[in-house]
Amino acid sequence: MMMSQIEGVLSIDKPAGLTSHDVVARIRLISGIRRVGHTGTLDPLATGLLILCLGQATRLAEFLAGQNKEYLATIRLGQETNTFDAEGTIVAEKPVNVSKIQLLAALDQFRGKIKQIPPMYSAVKVDGQPLYRRARQGKVIDRPAREVTIFELDLYCWQSPEIQVRLVCSSGTYVRVIAHDLGRSLGCGAYLMGLRRTAVGNHRVDTAIPLADLQKSGWQDYLQPSDIAVSHLPGVVLAEEEAVSLYHGQRVPHHSESVESLVRAYDENGRFIGILTGDEQYWSAKKILYQPGE
Prior knowledge:
The chain folds into 3 domains: 3-67 and 205-229, Pseudouridine synthase, CATH 3.30.2350; 69-200, Pseudouridine synthase (2-Layer Sandwich); 233-288, PUA domain (Archaeosine Trna-guanine Transglycosylase, Chain: A, domain 4, Roll), CATH 2.30.130.10. The chain contains 6 helices and 19 strands. It has helices at 20-31, 61-65, 100-108, 131-136, 175-186, 240-247; strands at residues 8-14, 36-38, 47-54, 69-77, 79-81, 90-93, 112-116, 125-126, 129-130, 146-159, 162-169, 190-200, 203-204, 209-210, 235-238, 252-253, 262-267, 272-278, 282-288. Strands 1, 2, 3, 4, 7, 10, 11, 12, 13 and 14 form a 10-stranded mixed sheet that branches. Strands 15-17-18-19-16 form a 5-stranded mixed sheet. The longest helix has 12 residues, at 20-31.
C-alpha cells in the first residue's frame, strides 16, 4: 500500500518534555506520512494519552477532540507560579495549614459546571493575539471566563504539601487553573506539579503505545482503523447503493423511529462509510471516507 493511502489512528503515551506538535513531527518522520494531526493538545509538562489521526482519518479528528478527558493531576500546595504549573516561576509562598475536611470541601466547589478564566500563559487568543505573548511582555489583560464541566473530581492521594486528584472534565478545561483556583480557595496557593491524561472518551492510556517504542519498521502494527476515532457514536448499516448516493452528496431515506444527530455508517460488508447526520426522514453526509469501487 502506498504511504498516501495509509490511514488510521495511533494512540500514543506521550512522555514529558515534548509538545504535542513534537509528537506529530516524530510520527511524520517514522511513518513517512505528512497528513498527521492530534486530537487534543497536551502541554510539554504532561504525559499520557495523545491520539493521532493519519491520512484520511484526520477528517475525523474533530469528533474525537470534543470528547471528555480524564486526568491524574499532582498539585503542589503552598506555592503559586506565574504559569500556574511547574514550568513557571514561583511568585508566592504560604504555609499549608489545611485539614482533610477542608480539602474535600474545597474540591467539592469545583464539581459540575464552573467558570474558568484562561491563564495568561496560554494559546487562547484575545484580539487576535495569543495570551502568552502578552504574558511574556509582563502584561495582564482581562480574559472572558469560559464555562466547563467537571464530571468527577476525587482526592486520589495526599502527602502534604502535595496532593493527587483524579478528574473527568469536558474538553477545553484547564487543569492548571483548577489547581490555581483550588489553592486560592484553601488560602495557601497551589500550582499544577504534574499531569497525566488517562483517557479521552472511551479510549484509555492503558492501550496506548509509548512513543519510544515506535520505530520506522513495525509502526503500522499499532495503527488502528479510522472508525476507532468515532467509536463513541452509534452505528448504522446501509446498502451499497445508499453509500454511493451519499458519496455523491445525495440524501438517503431511513426508517428509524428515533434518530441520533450523528452516526457512523457502514456498508453491508462492514466497510466504514463515514459520519452521517439525520433528521426525521433522511440521512445526510457529514464526513464521507468511502470511495466507490474500492
